[in-house]
Design brief:
By secondary structure, this protein is of the alpha/beta class. Helices cover 17% and strands 23% of the residues. β10, α5 and β11 form a beta-alpha-beta unit. It binds D-malate, manganese (II) ion and zinc ion.
Length: 309
């Protein structure tokens, strides 16, 4: 199975269009140790010919252009794509806006939780993906389903599960408990190659590593995990936004309550941070934070990173 990080950044990308934080300024000016990143998405294939996208970022058109495997194959006709299916982990803009790039009456299958599919249905701009062309299928929680698209069996299955998190920012209800968050607003995915039984976890948004989640990923061969923030308060300290990580639905990497500590005894063979926000100091290859994450066995995901499982 091939796993390719198309975009390793959180919403906004790196640099973010309107951001003057020290990281964004550094990458914009080409400082060594800083690498630009597009927004959060991963591509997976069992056979190298048909591909499943995990999330569709606003940068999808650019990401497709960067990966020859995702170009239309001449053998499939004048209108074609190796992208046969898309699975969503939430309804956030950085994970769904790229669906609009996949219009043009191209058949593929779209998978998401009932909550996220309902949110798309309520946003009529997504009707441009006409139901007779783009099949929408609910991902059940805790039960693997085989992935098909455009009449192709991808040789992959997805087991979705609820991850601790938050409803999409644009759907928040200020008056409701937990801003109206319900089960299914944030998913983690286990992607399984059916022929080999090999699998990996993709969890780009996660508020905390609770016990059920820790048990689930224990001993995994690969986890791509929420790397949004280094610390709970970095957005506030840098003057970027008045929100903590918890308020945004994202766990921090550092500290006793952070992901690095939570993964320490889980025996995960390969741990890769994705969905890295532009405020995160690990984006500086020379930083002490990068050194600390790597010393703890983590890899910092980058655009174009490819893993063979
Ligand atoms: C997030 O990951 O917190 C969201 O992408 C925020 C947003 O939609 O801007
Ligand atoms: Mn996001
Ligand atoms: Zn920035």
């Amino acid at each position: 199975m091939r796993v390719r990080v198309l975009g390793s950044s959180a919403g906004g990308g790196f640099p973010q269009w309107n951001c003057n934080c020290s990281n964004c300024r550094a990458v914009r000016s080409g400082l060594p140790g800083f690498t630009a990143r597009t927004q959060s998405s991963v591509a997976v294939s069992a056979d190298g010919a048909s591909w499943l996208l995990l999330n569709a970022s606003p940068d999808l058109r650019h990401q497709i252009g960067q990966m020859p495997d995702l170009a239309p194959s001449a053998a499939e006709g004048v209108r074609a794509t190796p992208i046969k299916a898309v699975a969503l982990t939430n309804g956030d803009v950085d994970h769904v806006a790229g669906l609009l790039n996949l219009r043009e009456a191209q058949p593929f299958s779209l998978y998401g939780s009932r909550r996220v599919l309902d949110a798309l249905k309520a946003n009529t701009i997504f009707d441009i993906l006409a139901p007779q062309v783009v099949a929408r299928t609910e991902l059940p929680l805790g039960a693997p389903i085989e992935i098909h698209g455009a009449g192709i069996d991808l040789g992959l299955a997805i087991e979705a599960f609820a991850a601790p998190g938050k409803i999409a920012l644009y759907l928040e209800d200020a008056d409701a408990a937990d801003f109206g968050t319900r089960t299914g607003d944030t998913l983690g995915l286990r992607v399984i190659e059916i022929a080999s039984g090999k699998s990996f976890f993709y969890i780009p948004g996660c508020a905390r590593l609770d016990e059920p989640l820790a048990q689930r990923i224990k001993g995994a061969s690969l986890v791509l995990f929420d790397g949004t923030l280094w610390s709970e308060t970095e957005m506030i300290e840098k003057g970027l936004m008045a929100k903590t990580g918890s308020r945004m639905g994202h766990i921090n990497m550092s500290g006793p309550d952070g992901s690095i500590a939570a993964f320490a005894d889980l025996g995960v063979a390969r741990k890769i941070f994705v969905h890295i926000n532009n405020s995160n100091p690990v984006l500086d290859a020379g930083s002490r934070e990068r050194a600390a994450a790597e010393a703890a066995g983590w890899e910092i995901g980058f655009d174009g990173m490819e893993i063979a499982l």
